[in-house]
Amino acid sequence: MSKNPSKLFSLLAKNWALFFLLILILIFSFTGKRFFQLANFQNIIHLSTISLLLASAETFVIITGGIDLSVGFMMGLSSVLSATIMQKMHAVNFLPVLSISIGSIIALILCIIAGLISGIMITKYRVPSFIATLGMGGIASGIALIMCEGFPVTFLPPYLTDIGNGYLIYILPGKAISFFNKPEGIAGEELKELIRIIPNSFIFIAIVLFILWHILKNTKFGQHTYAIGGSMVASVRAGVNTSRHLIIIYVLSSFLAGLAGVFNVFQTGVGNYTQLSSMYELLAVASVVIGGASLFGGKGRIIGSVIGVILISVIENGLQLSGVDPFYRFIAVGLILIAAIIIDRSFPDLF
Amino acid sequence: MDNITIKKNGLHGLLLQLGNKWMIFFLLLEVIIFSIISPGFFSLNGIQTILNNSPSILLLALAETFVIITGGIDLSVGFVMGFSSVISAKLIVTFVGLGMNDALSIIIGIVITLCIGIIPGFLNGILIGRYKVPPLIATFSMLGITHGISELLIEGSYAKNLPKLAGKIGNGNLINIVPGKTVSFFVSPAIQRGERLIEILPNMFVIAFIFIIFFAFILKSTKFGQHTYAIGGNVDAAIRAGIDVKNHIIKIYMLSSLFATIAGIIYMLRFVTGKADSGMVFLLDSIVAVVIGGASFYGGFGSVWKTVIGCFIILLLENGLRMLGFPTFYKLVLVGIILIFAVLIDQFSPELLHKED
Lengths: 351, 357
Hints:
The complex is a heterodimer of chains A (351) and B (357). Chain A is mainly α and 351 residues long. Chain A has helices at residues 7-14, 16-31, 38-63, 71-91, 96-123, 129-148, 160-164, 189-193, 200-218, 220-230, 232-237, 242-268, 280-290, 302-321, 328-346; strands at 167-172, 176-179, 195-199.
């Protein structure tokens, strides 16, 4: 812990998560079967879309010094609600486009309202964010379960999974190339040779993440977010309307969780409730902390959180492909989290 | 803690008293409402069901009470409970396999589990007390580690082949009455066909309750308890008052893990198995019970007996709704609402006003 660490060393400590990720990819490329392949990397991104949305929601909240424990259950609620509406509308022969969009929009609106309630409780009534969102999460999960009675919501309109699991470019080597849809008239052996590039989910998440990154880094809103996390009192004195700002933050967080729920419907083709033991929100918090944020507020980056999420996904995927018992990943996430904090504590002047 | 004078007479004083003890009235209200609308709720069987379900949540909530009073949180209790249910089951099966007698292997298994079970708490305490890791993060990583290890130990399934004696202990009752014939304690007597056996007070509830009485005393009337409140009230003041905060925090988290371990052992005895995720469902409930009991997440407030009342509010709600034929999902919604309600009440009580930043 010298005062002036060498440039290389400080670069290494600052971006340890990224370097660790690269090292892991290198190791898994040797140990894992079919790990270092385009298809697998696309798969990793595709499967971490939801975690990325939840983690970016959590990033905003954690930067303000709060925590949102409702994101996982809000996602389940939005997934079940949107799927139920789609199912009901599809059953009475509405156009698929209409039922899909109305279902998604209503679910998102409900999530915004829930975020609004959490935000008001936290700012106006000074309920600790931990408790307010824990209660909101319990309520959301209960409502979702009552709505779907503990079963996935099925019989949804067509095209859902075509959109959620589709790719931007399809290439059949030497024969055909098409965008968004598979080339027509191929089946059997040819389907296996089909090369799929850039999943739709990647485009979607890239756009969302870019917008959020831009908001946090380059706008007044982002600056105020950091200011509130740094010192609430100082930002009140600087004329920031902290109550309004915090309410917007919790609305944004709930909205992103709702978006994750709707996207989950697109990916799986059914409405899934969130199981009580799934711990999406804690994994999201973990990825944000691995990405360099502090639970005391004032610190955190979208890019860091993305690296945190990808790190956890790569560990999961890599261990699986290397034939390691999947339960090691729980241990791995715990250990990395501890490492993240200790590295953060050991070099306080770097961050 | 600050000395703040509150007017304790007149209507204002009455309201304040009510506000402090609302959970007691809420519990009574629950008993009355469920007794009226759900026949069989207020019967020996109904009460026995509730008491049978109570040890896990009571012990986990006891653990959270100590931790939350210091201003922390322990997310790992649920999986430490699962971890210890798995470890104890594995150990006992191993000992029985080595040819030891059933009773001896159960006792030795439990003792070793108690020693292993406090290790996660010790590590939590070191991370939180010494390295100043936020409790949420430290205990979440311990949650992952204990979950992973216990799943690996039982290979994703559950522990089997425990001796029958374990179930006899775990499902026994303190007082067993065969009307007109015998009364026996701890072990149920052999009964003939057609005879009715009245069982009062499950063994496991009695054990949990003894712990609660003991630790309620520790928290309220010993130096250890005073220091716990002091640390939660104001860490800097506690350090200046000469309290060894680091060591105290380590002890608190070890205690928390110890309670979770006991909950796991009780689970193993009751269900004659070990399961990695056996405690996860109780994590949320136990935190809610502590908050209903008037503890504050800023630390410094909370009491064991009020937590016990919080636990029973949840247990009664669960049992009452089940007897009325509602799916358990409704419990989640109601518990969420009660949680927020509890915090709002505390927010308006003058005791907390001086804690605001």
